[in-house]
């Protein structure tokens, strides 16, 4: 019991050293591998490369933060367990002190005088009584030593556990600060990427407004969902007239972000086959930096929120390479894959260029309807 608590405290003290360090987080923030294909924007290749690199930084920083947060939570659980053990030892101390005091009083009682052995022998009525008294005295002495030694060991262990716990807490606070700093940097990247996407979107909308011929353009081909018979975007003779409202998705607090968007998306999906999937959409958006409204809105246009799926758990009219439609084993699997696919291939939010690529035959109508659904979430 005593040594197992000490080993537990020692393990806790060493645990924070294995938590992701600020240096590792810095590496995650500065790594800029390229995605292929790049995000779809009407911009130069250099701008596309910049946006792709920013997206990678967001995902790397968010992954590092999530990893640190999980390890910090695990460490806190061990600290809580260790504190419970300390409280248990402290609860036992008064009883142990009473036992030691009692043993010492008994020992003093039988050892008072200059020569207790002679006193016992003189006062004993028989040799048997003398032997019995000596044995009892030895037992009292041994018990006193054991009780006092146990008390001392428990007190020593208590102080060691408290010191190690304090050290672990100090390391925990340092790791929390590192994770918070890294998250702040990641959220700055998220804001920059979102602002860039909005700038690109505004510029392309302005161009389309100025060029009516381009706005009425009809593209050929299938795209991702071009042949999805369940899609609600069927009008080929339209122009873009809907603007996506700013959803303010840049919260730097994980719990606040997840709680807010889980609730908002659950309200949007209520009564549909995808009801209750708000948490999965929120987590996928947090991990990729994608607007959390985008994938649910596409699911509404392509399958009426999962009522008319193209294939198993495929609510997005998502075609498969080589023909047919993609399928998934669960909503969670499909949502995670689709949100990651949007981030890797289309950027962080809806744009006209993304609409052209996702649903070429009726892309203007698709854009208007997806944008309108996003504004409802």
Automatic annotation (TrEMBL):
The keyword Signal applies. This is Membrane-bound metallopeptidase. Keywords: Coiled coil, Signal. Transmembrane segments: none annotated. Residues 44-106 form a coiled coil. Residues 1-42 form the signal peptide. The lineage of its organism: Bacteria, Bacillati, Actinomycetota, Coriobacteriia, Coriobacteriales. Gene3D superfamilies: 6.10.250.3150. Residues 163-182, 217-246 are annotated as: Disordered.
């Amino acid at each position: 019991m005593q040594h197992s608590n000490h080993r537990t405290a020692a393990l806790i003290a060493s645990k924070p050293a294995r938590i992701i360090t600020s240096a590792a987080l810095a590496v995650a923030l500065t790594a800029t591998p390229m995605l292929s294909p790049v995000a779809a924007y009407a911009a130069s290749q250099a701008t596309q490369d910049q946006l792709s690199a920013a997206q990678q930084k967001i995902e790397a920083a968010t992954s590092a933060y999530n990893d640190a947060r999980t390890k910090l939570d695990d460490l806190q659980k061990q600290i809580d367990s260790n504190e419970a053990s300390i409280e248990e030892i402290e609860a036992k101390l008064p009883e142990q002190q009473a036992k030691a005091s009692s043993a010492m009083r008994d020992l003093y009682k039988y050892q008072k005088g200059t020569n207790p052995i002679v006193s016992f022998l003189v006062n004993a009525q028989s040799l048997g009584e003398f032997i019995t008294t000596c044995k009892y005295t030895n037992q009292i002495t041994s018990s006193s030593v054991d009780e006092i030694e146990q008390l001392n060991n428990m007190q020593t262990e208590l102080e060691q556990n408290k010191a190690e716990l304090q050290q672990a807490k100090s390391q925990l606070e340092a790791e929390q600060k590192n994770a918070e700093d890294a998250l702040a940097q990641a959220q700055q990247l998220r804001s920059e990427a979102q602002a860039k996407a909005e700038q690109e979107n505004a510029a392309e909308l302005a161009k389309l407004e100025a060029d009516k011929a381009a706005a009425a353009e009809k593209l050929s081909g299938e795209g991702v969902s071009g042949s999805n018979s369940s899609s609600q975007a069927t009008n080929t003779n339209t122009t873009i007239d809907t603007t996506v409202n700013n959803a303010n998705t840049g919260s730097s607090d994980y719990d606040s972000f997840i709680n807010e968007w889980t609730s908002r998306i659950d309200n949007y999906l209520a009564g549909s086959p995808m009801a209750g999937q708000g948490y999965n959409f929120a987590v996928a958006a947090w991990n990729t930096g994608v607007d959390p409204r985008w994938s649910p809105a596409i699911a509404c246009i392509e399958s009426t929120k999962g009522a008319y799926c193209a294939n198993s758990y495929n609510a997005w009219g998502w075609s498969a390479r080589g023909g047919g439609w993609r399928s998934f084993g669960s909503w969670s699997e499909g949502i995670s894959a689709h949100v990651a696919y949007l981030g890797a291939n289309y950027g962080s939010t809806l744009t006209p260029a993304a609409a052209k690529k996702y649903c070429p035959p009726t892309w203007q109508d698709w854009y208007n309807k997806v944008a309108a659904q996003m504004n409802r979430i």
